[in-house]
From TrEMBL:
Top-level lineage group: Eukaryota
Tagged with keyword Chaperone: yes
GO terms assigned for molecular function: alpha-tubulin binding; microtubule plus-end binding
Similarity comment text for this entry: Belongs to the TBCB family.
Protein known as: CAP-Gly domain-containing protein
Pfam families, alphabetized: CAP_GLY, Ubiquitin_2
SMART domains: CAP_GLY
Entry keywords, A to Z: Chaperone, Cytoplasm
High-level lineage: Eukaryota, Metazoa, Ecdysozoa, Arthropoda, Hexapoda
GO BP field: cytoplasmic microtubule organization; post-chaperonin tubulin folding pathway; tubulin complex assembly
Length: 244
């Protein structure tokens, strides 16, 4: 005779509510094999409560109290909790209101804040992440300096009125005339304003309301010096009315 056994999932999906914010309901998935103490630790992150003081109540889909899983060393799965049930967290330390306008705010000077060891800034500094990595930031500044010098050197080889061909990655080559050279208000660095032979541009020589040069709408564009190839490029005759 074959032996049969009931196999149940190692996880349960439940809804979490708390006494501090009755209208809030969070749905989460938990392992049945964790202790109630560990489970309360996870609920700390979800509700803002304290595992040492919180009390748990489990309700079924009909809002009927099923059990109160509060024995710290007992496993969560040892309680009769099924998928879809609601676990309500009761805690005196959870604020019973959402309006924080009357809560006194902690104000701290930049100097005092920098001395604390439990802040995000302290963590980033300790682990040398982002802008708090001096070596990485110096390397980035050096790369930016070299890029700026290279752009300035390239732009000196160009002149307003030069014919050119523009090569931008993933885009077809376009020919035009250089109309502007130098810095702009819309982005840092050196820029080349070009009037294309065809309406393949993005503007009329204006960006954000400032006029840098004149051309017809959709004939103007700004590109980086490295994307400009100066040369004796003739203006091609694009007869749009001709049918083949």
């Amino acid at each position: 005779m074959a032996n049969y056994s009931v196999v149940t999932s190692d996880f349960i999906n439940v809804q979490i509510t708390n006494s501090g914010e009755e209208s809030s309901c969070i749905e989460r998935r938990f392992q049945k094999g964790i202790t109630i103490d560990d489970f309360k630790g996870k609920l700390e992150l979800l509700t803002g409560g304290n595992r040492a003081t919180m009390k748990l109540e489990v309700y079924d889909k009909h809002n009927k109290l099923v059990c109160c899983p509060n024995e710290a060393t007992r496993l969560l799965g040892s309680y009769p909790i099924d998928d879809g049930m609601r676990i309500h967290v009761k805690d005196n330390f959870i604020s019973p209101f959402n309006d924080l306008s009357s809560v006194e705010k902690l104000e701290m000077s930049a100097e005092d804040y920098s001395k604390r060891t439990d802040t995000v800034k302290a963590f980033l500094t300790k682990n040398k992440l982002g802008k708090y990595n001096e070596e990485q930031m110096k390397q980035k500044e050096e790369e930016q300096r070299r890029e700026q010098e290279a752009e300035e050197a390239l732009i000196k080889t160009l002149a307003v009125g030069d014919r050119c061909e523009i090569e931008v990655p993933t885009q077809p080559k376009r020919r035009g005339t250089i109309m502007y050279l130098g810095t702009t208000d819309f982005k840092p660095g050196q820029w080349v304003g070009v009037k294309y032979d065809e309406p393949l541009g993005k503007n009329d020589g204006s960006v954000n309301g400032k006029k840098y040069f004149d051309c017809l709408p959709k004939y103007g564009s700004f590109v980086k010096p490295a994307q400009v190839k100066k040369g004796d490029f003739p203006v091609e005759d694009y007869d749009l009315d001709e049918e083949l």
